[in-house]
Every structure is written in structure tokens, then in C-alpha cells.
């Protein structure tokens, strides 16, 4: 989720401080909770056991392929009164596991989900890492990568050392923020109306816009003490031989430039990964200024699942999701935005509000996208705020004639026809 969420919260806090006194202090302290609940609506119920959530499929694991929503919350915020963990999903195809995004707490949900049944686990396998074949990152915002390296460091003692396949786990994510000529392009500095561009320090100036390969190499270095100890004292295998990290190349000739306000629309999905069980295609979506940002589609012999990633309404996503069984789409509620920035809005607040909404999708717009794509099920995940009541999300039903599900952690869906 865009860092603009935090900016919006701070903007709302600053505005309310004008009220003065103890009451204003209390309101400022609780602005996140108020924005999430909009007049103290009840928080979502606690997360169910795998496959038991209302709206999901209780018998999902009787299908050869199924989807598990690991974490369903969005944003770099610990939402009060919410049982949702950070964004993360798993597609299971005939015992093999494919993961999408790694938000805070999603690793814990992966452990709780126990995706691999006991009879299929190898000795010492606890999480299911032994059956992971590939991992995918839609983009590199903190709320999508917080638990990413847990699968490396904790996976060592949870199945990675006893994987039946000796093939590396393939990891795919965005590359550096560069133009078509390979030049680094920093994102523009967000400024308020009438404000001159401030001088902001650049972190890691030698590589200020790292991609997935860069990020992973830096994490190896950051944890060098632990890695070297485990390899020398415990004789653990080299993590670099277990994982193969790949930056996703953006197709040539589509008119892409990092600092365009919108990604090129009308592009055809392109293949990212393929094995004997799944084909994964991708497209660029609108999460400006964080680019590149991808949506992914998983096609199996049983059916198809699409993940929107973080995006505003996108024609590219409609093309990618055409005819899919399930579309897992991010969502932000109008009520939360209105509580943060109630009218009348100053020009600064109006700019911040528009910036926030252009990078994310309202429920009604997600419903339109799902209807245009002709998907069977629309499942909301990466829900902002994470404690949003269902009534703030049901607006999608006005425009979508299929099955709408408000995602909760560990909810599961069968893909295609039942039968293992």
C-alpha cells in the first residue's frame, strides 16, 4: 500500500489538533481506529480455521487445485480491532504451492494454513516449504514484503532442507525502477499545491530503486552473521542454491516509462513462469508512483485465479482476468477516506485524497472490473482499512452479478471441479 496512507493519517491528525484540548488529543490518538470503523462499526470476526470462513468453500481441499487467502489486510498499518494479517495468498495445485505477496503476519498464516497434508510432508517439514515451487511479488512496498525473507531464514528449519525436489524455488518480482534505456528514474517528490520541491535525502544513492534481485542480495548481506553461522556450525545448505531470484522484464515497445502518471493501457498479458502444473502471466497495473507493479494470473488444468496487486481501476487487469474463475482484488473504502479527510477539503487535502484513491480501488469499481472481465468469483483482499465492516465493502454488488466474497484470513476456494 502506498506510503500516502500514513501521510493521510498524519494529515487528519494535524487537522484535528486545531480543535485543541484533551478531546482533540484523544481524537488524534484514535484517528486510525475511527477511520477504520467509521462511527464504531463492529470489527470483523476472528479468522476461521482453514476453509471454514463464511463465503469460502468448506470443502476446498477436496479440489485438486485451491486458493488460500493467507492474510487479507492492506497498508503499512497495524489496524486496531482487526484479526486480519498482512496481504498474502497461496495457490495449491496437486500438492505444489505457489505464493503471492508476503505482508506482515502472512507467514504465520502460512504456518496455520498447513497447506501440505501430513501424509505428504517430508520428515522435518512443518510449514509446507518443502512443497513450494515458486513465489511472486506484485510490487515491493513494505506491506507486501515484510515476511518475504522469513521463508528463507525460518524455512531452513521448516522443510527447506528436506525438500523432495532439488530444483530451486523460483522467485519472481519487479526489477529496478528504470526506463526503456536502463536508466534509473527516481519517482517525483509529492508536493502540496503551491509548495516548492523540498530537498529530500536519497537512501542508498548508488542503487536507490532496487528490484527483487537487489533486495534479496541485500537481505543476504544483512543476515550474513546468522547465515554464516548456520552454514558453518549447523551445516545448513546454501540458501542461494535453494532459491533462484528473478526480476520480471517489462515487455519492449509498450510505451512504458516509470514517471508516466499511468501505466500503458491495452497491453497484452505476458508469460512470467511455467511448469508442468501452472502457467503464470502478468500485466502492469496502476499503483503510481510505485512502479513497476504487477497483477498475476495463474492458469491450471482445473481453472484460473487472478491477483490484482495494488492498483487503481485498470483496463490491463480486465484483460488479464477475462473469464477467470476467481479474481482476488484489493479494495479501499470510501468511508475511511471520508473520515480521514472530511469536507470541506483544502487544496492540499484534495490532492492527497485524489492521490490516495487513484492508486487503489473502491468496492464499486472493483465490481465493475469483475463484471467486465466476466469472472465467476470476486474475492476482496488487501482490504483498507483492515478493520472495515462488510457493509462498507458490499457496494461491489451493485455492479457485479457473480459471487462476491469479503476475504478473511485462511479463507479457501476450490478451483474448477471437485476431486483430488
TrEMBL record:
Keyword Transcription: no
Region Disordered: start-end pairs: 38-58
Protein name in UniProt: Ribonuclease BN (tRNA processing enzyme)
GO-annotated molecular function: 3'-tRNA processing endoribonuclease activity
Organism ancestry: Bacteria, Bacillati, Actinomycetota, Actinomycetes, Actinopolysporales
Presence of keyword Lipoprotein: no
Keyword list, A-Z: Endonuclease, Hydrolase, Nuclease, Signal
Cited CDD domains: arylsulfatase_AtsA-like_MBL-fold
Domain of life from the UniProt record: Bacteria
Signal peptide: 1-33
InterPro entries recorded: AtsA-like_MBL-fold, RibonucZ/Hydroxyglut_hydro, TAT_signal
